[in-house]
UniProtKB/TrEMBL annotation:
Belongs to the NadC/ModD family. Residues 21-104 form the Quinolinate phosphoribosyl transferase N-terminal domain. InterPro entries: Aldolase_TIM, ModD, NadC/ModD, Nicotinate_pribotase-like_C, Quinolinate_PRibosylTase_N_sf, Quinolinate_PRibosylTrfase_C, Quinolinate_PRibosylTrfase_N. The keyword Zinc does not apply. GO terms for biological process: NAD+ biosynthetic process; quinolinate catabolic process. Gene3D superfamilies: Aldolase class I, Quinolinate phosphoribosyl transferase, N-terminal domain. It comes from Plasticicumulans acidivorans. The lineage of its organism: Bacteria, Pseudomonadati, Pseudomonadota, Gammaproteobacteria, Candidatus Competibacteraceae. Keywords: Glycosyltransferase, Transferase. This is Putative pyrophosphorylase ModD.
């Protein structure tokens, strides 16, 4: 479960409402009773609908999410309903709608990659990177999990991932020495090594890497690497693939032998389309 603080949501409100709602204030309709509903315009995997309801509640609206993050819905499905003063409804409208559309686009793309991967092998893990736009990571992570994917790295502090750039510091024996140091200092962590060619993969495997992250390999390159590792008796490391993986090509990488798929594709997904209906509530 991802914890999204009130402070984080308050910042979204403040961004869109720095000095009040000029249109609603000028029209003098802020205290009128209003109703708002969100509907899916197309098939989608829903994300952050709970946060959308909380945003509206923070503004003084009574809001209820009609589904949960992770729900796969069809066109016409009601996602949220809310009632309250028109001023509060209008203040929260676009903040809540934009959040759900953006996050649900990420979740829907993550779901499409997971579904394509699991159509070949349900044991494969699809993991999303930390390449979400700055300031959006916790919300983006909730979205990819809603889409059925895992988090590759929450941040720099939780996993050991040795990049080729790290190996620039240490001379010819950098990989061997750095892996030995990491294993001694972080014995409870898996050692993940990113490699850019078969030669680097063989050296990393020989020196005890737990996971080989093959960066921008073709599917045939993945197959060749696995075959070479087996031939030389280094078939132990798990094979992860990264770089350009999406719903269209993920199946090829699974068939090639990848066990973990690392992708950033969901973060550039087109937002989902949410229809918003706002009505005045007649006085009794």
């Amino acid at each position: 479960m991802h914890y999204i603080s009130d402070l984080q949501l308050q910042r979204l409100i403040e961004e869109d409402l720095p000095s009040g709602d000029l249109t609603t204030q000028t029209l003098g309709i802020g205290t009128a009773a209003a109703r708002m509903e969100f509907f899916a315009r197309g098939d989608m995997t829903v994300a952050t609908i709970e946060e959308a309801a909380r945003i509206l509640e923070m503004l003084g609206v009574r809001a209820r999410a009609a589904c949960c993050s992770g729900a796969q819905v069809s066109a016409g499905t009601r996602l949220l309903s809310a009632t309250g003063p028109a001023g509060a409804i209008f203040a929260g409208w676009k903040v809540a709608q934009n959040l759900v559309e953006w996050a649900s686009g990420i979740a829907s793309e993550a779901r499409s990659i997971v579904d394509a991967a699991h159509a070949v092998d349900r044991s494969v893990v699809v993991a999303c990177t930390r390449k979400a736009p700055p300031g959006t990571r916790i919300l983006a992570q909730k979205a990819v999990v809603a889409g059925g994917a895992s988090i590759h790295r929450i941040g720099l502090s939780d996993t050991v991932l040795l990049f080729p750039e790290h190996r620039q510091f240490g001379g010819n024996e950098a990989l061997r020495d750095q892996l030995a140091r990491l294993r001694m200092s972080c014995p409870e962590r898996k050692l993940v090594v990113e490699v850019k060619n078969i030669g680097e993969a063989l050296i990393a495997a020989r020196n005890g890497a737990d996971v080989l992250q093959l960066e921008k390999f073709s599917p045939s390159g993945v197959t060749d690497t696995i075959a070479m590792l087996r031939e030389l008796g280094h078939a132990g490391p798990l094979i992860a693939v990264a770089g350009g993986i999406n719903a269209r090509n993920v199946a090829d990488y699974i068939r090639a032998g990848a066990r973990i798929v690392v992708t950033s594709s969901p973060y550039t997904a087109r937002p989902a389309d949410v229809q918003v209906v706002i009505d005045a509530v007649p006085e009794r």
